[in-house]
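Researcher: I'd like a candidate sequence for this fold, 164 residues long. If you have to choose between options at a position, lean toward the conservative one.
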């Protein structure tokens, strides 16, 4: 490993881990600016690179750890802790922030049901969708299905529906 990478792997792990910890706690407790979400996702992904360099640098000691019970117990406990979040709860639905889940549920309705919520007639909403490139073969078709068929980004179509 080049000396510069050798010298900076652990300090970057430490710095990025601290940023990930602070942003993760802020997200968990729903405090701080909205930028914490992107910060947490992107910098946690960036943390992978110095982690791999750290593993490379410390490969022999790591192999030594793998021969002893504490590392195996820690890895097994960590895997089980992560697996708990993947157990089906019977309330399977789209994940994410509540406002996005709500928007997705709204889009499962046809234009006639959505138009009044936007202070539009069904014809006006259909025209907005058509202008954006979303065609409704049948007025009873859920808007979400028409958006998927169009291949357009949902965010773009939602903005058009709102007249933005």
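Model: Candidate sequence:
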């Amino acid at each position: 490993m080049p000396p510069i990478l050798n010298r900076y792997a652990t300090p970057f792990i430490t710095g990025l881990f601290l940023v990930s910890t602070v942003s993760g706690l802020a997200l968990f407790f729903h405090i701080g600016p909205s930028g914490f979400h992107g910060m947490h996702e992107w910098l946690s992904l960036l943390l992978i690179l110095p982690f791999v360099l750290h593993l490379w640098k410390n490969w022999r000691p790591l192999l030594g750890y793998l021969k002893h019970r504490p590392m195996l117990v820690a890895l097994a406990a960590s895997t089980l802790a992560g697996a708990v979040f993947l157990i089906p709860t019977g309330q399977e639905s789209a994940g994410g922030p509540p406002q996005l889940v709500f928007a997705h549920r709204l889009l499962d309705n046809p234009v006639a049901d959505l138009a009044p919520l936007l202070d539009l007639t069904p014809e006006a909403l259909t025209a907005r969708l058509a202008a954006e490139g979303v065609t409704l073969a049948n007025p009873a078709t859920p808007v979400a299905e028409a958006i998927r068929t169009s291949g357009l980004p949902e965010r773009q179509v939602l903005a058009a529906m709102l007249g933005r």
